[in-house]
Amino acid sequence: LKARPGTNGQGKSMHGSSGKDLIVKVPKGTIVREAPPNPLLAKSNSGIELPNGTGFLDTLEKDMQQDMREREQDKNSWFVHYPRWEDRNDLTKVLVPQEFKAFKWELENPKPLRFDLTEHGQRALVARGGLGGFGNPHFISSTERQPHYALRGLAGQRRVLELELKTLADVGLVGMPNAGKSTFLGAVSNAHPKIAPYPFTTLNPYIGTVDFRDTFQMTVADIPGLIPGAHRNVGLGHSFLRHVERSRVLVYIVDVSRHEPWNDLLALQQELDLYHKGLSSRPSLVVANKADMGDQARQNFERWQQMTSIPIIPASAKYKKNILKVTHTIRQLLE
Prior knowledge:
By secondary structure, the chain is α/β, with parallel strands linked by helices.
């Protein structure tokens, strides 16, 4: 991405026009940060094999460093001379404007960037435009009535950034694949996620809004199913886990009809903590889903209640049983 540059100045002390800002719109919840320096890219974005060290970021950084060295080699390179005056101009006593020096130092010593854009309309400056040059009228003095040189402008910043989107929601639904998270979201909100009787139906987070009669609202995010090893990015775990970090309340959707369903809860909590220490300690609720699936589900629920301190509510998302109790309990955790 490149902003539109300004124009050169002209004779009769006429300034050139300024460049135009480039505004890139991103979704709310986007994190902007500096790309890691000197990555050795084994493959290009297209998947073509490249020799180590010849990646795009390496090439760009080498170009920037070379450009910086060339400009620092000689103060004379900062100036542009009138034709046939290169050897006649004496620049040793020319005072370079402090504004120029400060801007040049800032360009050569950029601070690492990291912005978390969580509000609508929030802005962040990620790269500054260049500084216009100083024409020869700027250097007129009592001893130099007609300078035959001018100070070049400075190019704007070039940066390589990473953008990561983390979903913003009050409540995050966490569970194993095919535990009924999408069915639950469809039962309590206005969302219509894909529902099917096989794992990994949901590959991207869905967000629904739950409306209460007193105008209270809460947003609920259906996080794609997690599997053991998700913290190591098994099963695209990082792509899913990053969305959980934003949630104020975690709701574990567990299939209570499975054999020893409490082990699923322990596995989910472990994956959360291995990904981000303390993540599972947030206010939480367990929805014992599929509680209508016979005596096995009922016996598991009764035994489970005696084994944990986390609130557990039996429910059937498919038939919308006990859903109101779940949503009101979640609201209490949020308030």
